[in-house]
Amino acid sequence: QVQLVESGGGLVQAGGSLRLSCAASGHTFSSYVMGWFRQAPGKEREFVAAINWSGAVTLYGDSVKGRFTISRDNAKNAVSLQMNSLKPEDTAVYYCAVGPNTLQWQNWGQGTQVTVSS
Hints:
mainly beta, about 0% helix, 11 strands, seven-stranded mixed sheet, four-stranded antiparallel sheet
């Protein structure tokens, strides 16, 4: 059974940093794309970042470019999201996802809350 478990969310002041982690189990995702999405109350789910199997290719949503960094550790079957210069508009539930490519996200985590206070 595939399971993705996020951790690292919490409350932080604007300008601060948080690091989210996602541990995958039940399958080896070393050849898969791994990514992060977020959803704020009353808004649609938004793409945040993705990383290819080797870590050589990364993609970011426009709203987080230059502030967030995605990375992965295939030995640990894990992906992380370093979030710097956080803004109140970054407040959302953040979800980890994996799939064969960026158009097919097959598995999702349960989400972790990030709240940025002004």
